[in-house]
Amino acid sequence: MEVIGKSVIRKEAVDKVTGRAKYTHDYQKVPLLSGKMVISPYGHAKIVNIDTSEAWKVPGVRAILTGKQYPLTGEAIRDRPPIAFDKVRYHGEPVALVVADTPAQAKTAADLIKVQYELLPVVNSPTQAFQKNAPLVHERLGEYKKEADSHPVPDTNIATLIKIRKGNMAKGWAESETVVEASFSFAPSDHVAMETRCATAEISPDGNIIIMTSSQAPFMVKRLIADYFGEDMGKIIVRTPLVGGAYGGKAPVQLEVLAYMASKEVGGKPVKILNTREEDILTSPCHIGLDATVKLGANRSGKITVAEILYLWDGGAYSDKAIDVTRSGATDCTGPYNIENVWCDSYCMYTNHPYAAPFRGFSHSELSFAIERTMDLLAQKLNIDPLELRYINAIMPGNTTPTRVRLNKSNVGNLQKCIEKVRGLIKWDEGPVKVLNDRFIRVKGVSCSWKTSTIDTDAPSGVILTFNRDGSINLMSGVVEIGTGTKTILAQILAERLKMDVNKIHVRMEVDTQTTPEHWKTVASRGTFMGGRAVLKAAEDVIHQLKELAACVLRSPKEDLEIANSRVFLRDDPAIGLHFKEIGYGYKYPNGNTVGGQIIGRGSYILRHLTPLDPETGAGRPGPEWTVAAYGVEIEFDKRDYTYRLLKAATVVDIGRVMNEKAAVGQVMGAMSMGLSFAGRETFYFDELGRVLNPQLRTYRPLRYGENPEYLVGFVETPQIDGPYGARGVGEHGLLGMPGALGNALSTAAGVSLHNLPLIPELIWKAKEANK
Amino acid sequence: MQSHTITLNINEEIHIVAVKAADTLLYTIRGKLGLTGAKPGCLNGDCGACTVNVDGWPMKSCLMLTVEAVGKKVTTIEGLRETPIQQAFVENFAFQCGYCTPGFIMNCHSLIQQHPDADDQTIKEWLESNICRCTSYIEIEKAVKSVLNKK
Ligand code: FES
Ligand code: FES
């Protein structure tokens, strides 16, 4: 291996340290109109009247979109008006959209729009939404258009229910001797990508719709706008330059729709909509909340025999991607443990909260908090070491998942190895608690995770390779560069396969849905796997073409040819051969005759054997493989005021194969940082009107420099046989176990079982007080 | 609102621009001068993505009016040329999406100039004003220390 595993510097590195890297909002042109939203100040209210007369008087105002029923949008259920009509269902929901010549004019006008509301009763949690007489968020749930595998229940707040029924529950309970049951709850929070979402749209006279957007799913934008508005799909051209952080939050399609509608309203002129930070937090989709109840039964030796699980996901006002998150949560509902008898109901609930986007880990960090805390409670009751309990129940080849997929040596990693490695990294054997003095103690907590990626069964990924005259290669893939460095890894895969210098491979960073082959969505840690397989296929295509041409020029059978160092040559006599620059554009004989032409390689990949879940039992194959990981967190706890300091955080993940060492370590550490931030401090604070009280980075405070612990990262490499060079996804996994491990450490430290996030001192104090 | 024509010294170049009294420096350098390296992240002084250097000190350009920059020397990320801190960010993988990077680099660059022997506490005080959502901060710590130690 020459290039795989090496810490190759990312292709766009120089642009990023010189300020030349461009993101959606950095593209400017004249004229470019500005769109500004008016957003709902309440969680649930009837719109009585909207008065735009003053706003229209502001010079420069070109259009005001409001008070009209636009086509309903939404991925799994068409339940969301792009601009609220009749009533608002969450704080931050767009009520009107002003289009003006400058951002200042648009803002001035937006502030002058007077909206009169009549308050409606608020559904402020998924548990409340689940009650029999809860107010309805959607009165006409039964009338919406929907996908076949969404199961909304009319006259309730249930957007969908996913059921898992595996094994025999009565048998499971009969075999168990120890039972624990616990409930957990946390409110929605936010992704806080540093780049707020932004989209521009224009419609040219020939009907082309050109959209630029900060998105993880430009191809989805194209599909959905065609679908929602009956536009010609080929006329929709979506461009996505570099994206300034996404973490799942930029997978939904929202601002693009508004920008398109705005442009249409002003005769196709270009319109830009840029979220303020407050809008990015409130209006655009957030990180899902969860209420969970977990009941586990185990026999005397600690083997878990049965699990009964209820998940009530806080999908917010609109179901959009929350339905998929709910399904994904059901799929891996038990955590990475082998349990024969499983019953799980995973509900996507409508509430009057901002609606949910995917969040890095797609339901797994959230459910993992509930499962891993319950695992510790079980260990306590059984009087078994918590790491040992996880070890003896660890999922393995030969076991089945909750959706009854039989695991093998390739489609699941080695969790026991991860546990062993983390045990060493965090020095678990020195004991979980170390008393420093009568005030401070150092405490460790552990957790595990697994994850498959539930994605569409027909999700594609494609790659095109073209040659330059100097023999270098251009690589084009629909993967969006959101910061994960995936496109650099694709170049490494190509370099490895062609045995060439990675610096001779040029990667196109921008995605343009007209000329870039589709990559379904840049989500779910699937870029390397699917994009990588497509690269390998395109490389085969190129190799075939190069050898074909060289065979003719060199008058040699194809089978005798070899490719390396940008040359095609005779295996037995490498001196005889051709450089790529001599054949990449066809071969020119001395007399000028030329054969062949520019070599263009193509490759595409589609995941195989995926099936939807059975609606009654959940049986089905939702994803290609399960990546597993084990975690540890160590804190220093102050028993006097319940504050704590993060000392160490460790993750060991079975990554299949390390493709780029430093990039992989960076992904895992960055994910841990986000996980600790989510677990330890991030949440929306709602008032009784469903208003988010902290929609600013001053009051919603992610981890900052110096607040971070020391990070320890370890890898296990159990190759996924059908992955490129054996690699598994790694973008999300560092995050998944952090809430559980931190919750376990703090529960031990405080001597009280903690069931909520974020784990702030006040929460610990409340739990202590309640326990007195 | 009325426009004024003012003279700004940015990246060692003199620029004559028409601005309104309420325009922030961030708005002017991005919108009028096309220097889009400084990024908006909150427009409220909370995130540091818009950090530039004014007379040698880091400044959040969303908090400064353009007219306040008259007579001062402003350096943006575009004004840095192959500085050790830029190289250190590359070598240490101190960014992923890169959106916070210009702000962090400008902050680090000022820190290195003002406190070439900064200790951990000083580094923390300076850098906690910026948010990076992708990295773990350890990479940024390594990058800035690798330059500080060389000095
Ligand atoms: S944009 Fe200036 S500090 Fe956030
Ligand atoms: S690199 Fe993405 S926010 Fe810092």
TrEMBL record, chain A:
This is Xanthine dehydrogenase family protein molybdopterin-binding subunit. Coiled coil: none annotated. It holds the Pfam family Ald_Xan_dh_C. GO terms for molecular function: iron ion binding; oxidoreductase activity. The keyword Lipid metabolism does not apply. PANTHER family: ALDEHYDE OXIDASE 1-RELATED, XANTHINE DEHYDROGENASE. Gene3D superfamilies: Aldehyde oxidase/xanthine dehydrogenase, a/b hammerhead, Aldehyde oxidase/xanthine dehydrogenase, molybdopterin binding domain. Keywords: Molybdenum, Oxidoreductase. InterPro entries: Ald_Oxase/Xan_DH_a/b (IPR000674), Ald_Oxase/Xan_DH_a/b_sf (IPR036856), Ald_Oxase/xanthine_DH-like (IPR016208), AldOxase/xan_DH_MoCoBD1 (IPR008274), AldOxase/xan_DH_MoCoBD2 (IPR046867), AldOxase/xan_DH_Mopterin-bd_sf (IPR037165).
Automatic annotation (TrEMBL), chain B:
Keywords: 2Fe-2S, Iron, Iron-sulfur, Metal-binding, Oxidoreductase. Residues 4-80 form the 2Fe-2S ferredoxin-type domain. Pfam families: Fer2, Fer2_2. One of its GO terms (molecular function) is oxidoreductase activity. InterPro entries: 2Fe-2S-bd, 2Fe-2S-bd_dom_sf, 2Fe-2S_ferredoxin-like_sf, 2Fe-2S_ferredoxin-type, 2Fe2S_fd_BS, Beta-grasp_dom_sf, Diverse_Oxidoreductases. It comes from the Bacteria. The keyword tRNA-binding does not apply. This is (2Fe-2S)-binding protein.
